[in-house]
Amino acid sequence: MGSAASELPTRRAPLADVAETGLKIVIVGGFGVGKTTLVRSVSEIRPLNTEEVMTQAGVGVDETTGVRAKTTTTVAFDFGRISLNERTVLYLFGAPGQERFWFLWDRLFSGTLGAVVLVDTRRMDDSWYAIDRLEHHGTPFVVAVNRFDDEPVRHSLDEIRQALALGAHVPMVDCDARVRASGKHVLITLVDHLYELALAREATS
Amino acid sequence: MRRPVDTGDPDRLYTVTGGRSRADTTFDLVTLVVSECEPAAGMQSEHVGILELCRHPTAVVEIAAELRLPITVVRILLGDLLAAGKITARHPPTARSAASLPDTALLKEVLHGLRSL
Ligand SMILES: Nc1nc2c(ncn2[C@@H]2O[C@H](COP(=O)(O)OP(=O)(O)O)[C@@H](O)[C@H]2O)c(=O)[nH]1
Ligand SMILES: [Mg+2]
Fold this sequence. Notes:
The structure holds 2 protein chains of 2 kinds.
Chain A: E1 21-29, H1 35-42, E2 48-56, E3 71-83, E4 88-96, H2 99-102, H3 105-109, E5 114-119, H4 125-137, E6 141-146, H5 157-163, E7 172-175, H6 180-203
Helix pairs in contact in A: 1-6
Chain B: H1 10-16, E1 32-35, H2 45-53, E2 58-59, H3 60-67, H4 71-83, E3 87-90, H5 104-115
Antiparallel strand pairs in B: 1-2, 1-3
The complex binds guanosine-5'-diphosphate and magnesium ion (MG).
């Protein structure tokens, strides 16, 4: 498994011994939309790759041989890390939006602070499904439009909002996933949004 | 160098976990794990690997990436070590249920950390 980069024997800087709180934010988007690039631009570690398997043991036992057949589904994802302070560390996950992945969402990403849907305007259809699933899971999210230089037409954020049938309450932001300041801005946009949601919730409880 | 486990082979995973497939789901991806002892002779190599890695707090997902094992397998191995008192786990505040949304104090801390990046 893993990309060539994850074969490097680079040692990660360990977390502080007082580190106690791990948090997560998930970046969702289709293949090639710039998830790993965004993670890399803000992470304090080279993005690492890992995977989860789903083995359905007992499914399809072969009647003639009695051999247990197992179907195994594997989903790979990568992640980076930002130490927010000595005690709190934020993990950023780059997750492909494909169907089998959502099957594992709860097992991997329950309790996530929120999500960034990364959009490539040349392949906007990929974003539909992710937005639908996030709404289904009740995960708050923002939409970040990763601008590639070879966009045939540069659509405005309003046009993209309409195309994605996004409600006015969902923040949208332009970004260049390669640029650290831009990636940082995307994350702050998300957490600002989460903060507003939490404020409203706390005001009514 | 540890030999990477072929994660594509279910039988190999079966061996690493002693045939178990039910993972301890109290271990979140970002639960920070800390070793409470040094590896001892005769320990399963994956347990040794975890104890070495977790001399400093290490997230479950980082353990999985470093050991090249699927999350499920790492959760099973961590369950063993926890039951034996060889590790402690620092669980995230938001993982317990999907309904426990982060509060403003936590989000303020996150914003502060991100702004000073
Ligand atoms: N021009 C441009 N290229 C980008 C941008 N973000 C990512 N890329 C490139 O697009 C390709 C796919 O990005 P990657 O992060 O691997 O996508 P992923 O599959 O979503 O993880 C890489 O070659 C990146 O260098 C961007 O903002 N602008
Ligand atoms: Mg990628």
